[in-house]
Structure formats: structure tokens, C-alpha cells
Amino acid sequence: MEHHKGNLNHGGASIKLCFFSSLASFDTGMPICTFKLIRHFSNNPEYEVHLIVPEPGELVARLQNEKVKVEIIPFSRLRSARRGADFFRFCVGWPAAVVRISGYLKRNKINIVHFSDFIDAPFYPAAKLGKAEIVAHLRLCIEKPLQRWFFSVWAGIFARKVVCISNAVRKLSGLRDSKTEVVPDPGPDYSLFDPSRAYPTHPALDERKIHLTTIAKFLWVKGHDFFIRMAALVENSLPGAVQFVIVGDRQKGHERFFDEITCLARELDIQKAIAIIGQVPHDEIPALLSHTDIFVHLPRYQEGLGGVVGEAMAMGVPVVAFDSGGVGECFRDQKDGYLIPHHDFKAAADKVISLAKDHGLRKKMGGSAMAYVRERFSLSRHMGAVELIYRDMLKARVRSNHVDAK
Length: 406
Description:
By secondary structure, the chain is of the alpha/beta class. It folds into 2 domains: 2-186 and 378-405, Glycogen Phosphorylase B (Rossmann fold); 210-376, Glycogen Phosphorylase B (Rossmann fold), CATH 3.40.50.2000. Helices cover 41% and strands 16% of the residues. The protein is built from 13 helices and 14 strands. Helix 7 packs across helix 11 (345-357) and helix 10 (307-314) packs across helix 12 (359-376). The protein is globular and about 65 Å long.
């Protein structure tokens, strides 16, 4: 991997591809999937791969041994106007960042810029100014009508194609189907999420109990209050039998929510049954899931697809999840787990109780989930679909240039 600030002397690659990520971390689905794309295309000699990020981070660190040229261009990512100083910082820095990004793309004669998610949208004009084609990846359901309208207009102007990770995401993109392509995420890394391996038990886990796990940062949209209320109902039905495990930690700017959740657990008198493990590196998630009996996913918002759901399934764990956005596209209700009406934590508790009481049912559903996720999500299928989009875009560009020349 190269870090650089100037012109590149490339080696004759036919397609110059630049990935753009507003996040340099490695703790959410967006940078993880971007990493998989970069690693795949950087090993294809037909492509010269670049990456633009605002700062060094784990995403960049993991690319040390890949054939990718990394450009660090500091910029503030899009924030809500309610975030005050952060929103102001983004607005003030945006024009200079667009100029620097477009200059980089133009100097290096980039053919395609692949933006990683919705938060990258403000920088679409930089790719246009840099004379590159734009692929916009959309990984979330745009629930607010005004945001959906704005994105549909913005992406309609700048992007050649919008890749949606689920049909739910496409439906709430505001875009016509001809502008979008549904390409599910590549799914778990099956060499990492391998249920045949022996993993150590986390010291916070009580091995005498059934482990019910959720993985989510402590943000209001993640629905931890639903999880706690569900846990209280399960504890009342099966006192002392279940340990409720939360993988996540207090988030900067959202400390009050973390405190509210811990307070709710005390009010419902189940704090002793709950283990808050904190933020865990992605590579350590398989170990936690290997000692999980039931995985629960209860987001308040409309989920784009549900990467953590697929990871639990890959480890042979049955899932109880709200029917939220694209979650229902991940697994089959009553075969791989249970799909629950959105926000109905009481129904979730009922299904958890039935699974907790029946080891054979857990084993049957977990085995079904593991088989289905491997059938449904494939790295090679994902990469093939994305590459086909690239090829079609470049063909369309060539045709357009021929028409203009005439």
C-alpha cells in the first residue's frame, strides 16, 4: 500500500478505480464492505485501485499488504444540523475538500469513483468535477421524506448508478428502479466466522446460563430499550436461566442514552442478568457468537440489511429480530429464527422464551440459518455484480463519447 500526496506513476491498468469512504474505522458494515471491495479489485490486474479517506484508521491499516494507493484528504463528514459545531465544521470545510478531491481524481485520471454510503453524498460533485463516473452505494433506508427527496434529486444528477444493499433500501431511496441495482452485501467472512473452530469463552460470560446476545453501539436508533424490556420479560419467565449480553459501549455525544439504558435495567431489576461487554474488535465477534445461544436484533429504525444478523447465522445461531427494513431479506421466518413485528418487544420475548426452553429447536434453527446465509450471501456473487456495473457504466460512457464526437 502507498500513502502519497502527488502524482502517481501507474503500471498500465485499464480501469482506474477510486473508493471513497467518509469513515476510516472498521467497526461498522460500511468500511468492512468497502475493505472487501478494495481487496478484491486491487488483486485484479485490470484495475488500478485508489482509496480516499479523511484520516488514518483501521481501514487503512488493514490495507497495508494490498495493492492500493491511499490518499488522506482531511474533511469533516456530513452531520445533522442539530450537531451544531460538527455541522458548521462540515459546511466550512466542504468547498476546500471538494476542490482537493476533484484535483486528485483529475490528476490520476480516475475512471470510476465508488462512494461507500449515504454520508458520502456531499462529495459526489468532486467526482463530477474530476471527470469520473460515479457509483453510489446506499446501505441505509432513507426514512425521512425530505432526505429521500433530496437524495433522489442529488443522486439523479451526479450518480450513474446507485447500488442498494436490499430491496427495502431501494424502495426508500426515492430513485426509479432503472437508476438502482440491488446487490446484497457479500455477507460474513466465512474463514473468520467459522463455527467449526474452538473459541475461548469471554470472561464476562457465565457458562452455566443460556446466552442471549445483541451487538449494537449505544445509540437511540439501535433499540437497546427494547432489548432491556424484552430481557425483563424473559427473566420473569425463566429466572436465573439466561444471561443477556450486550456488545457495545458508550458513544461520544450519546452518553445520556447509555446512562438511561443502565438506569432502565436497574428499574426493571435485571441489571445482574445483563453483561455489557463493551466495544469489541470485529475479529473477536466470532468468539462471542460461538458462545451465543440466541441472537437478538431489535433496531428502532428501518435497517438496511442487517450484517450482524448474517454473522450470527454464519455461526449457527438462531435469530429473533424485528421485521425492520431489509432484515427480513436476511433470513427465513420460523426456519432460521423468528421475524417479529417492528417494536413488539413482547412478541420478541415470547419467541426467545420458546427457544430458550428448547435446545433441539435452537440447534435445528441454527443449522438452518448457517446453511441459508451461505446460500444467500456470497463474496464472489457480490463482486461479480459490482464489476458488471462498472463494465456497463464504462461501456455507456464510451457510447456517449462517440455520440458527442459526431
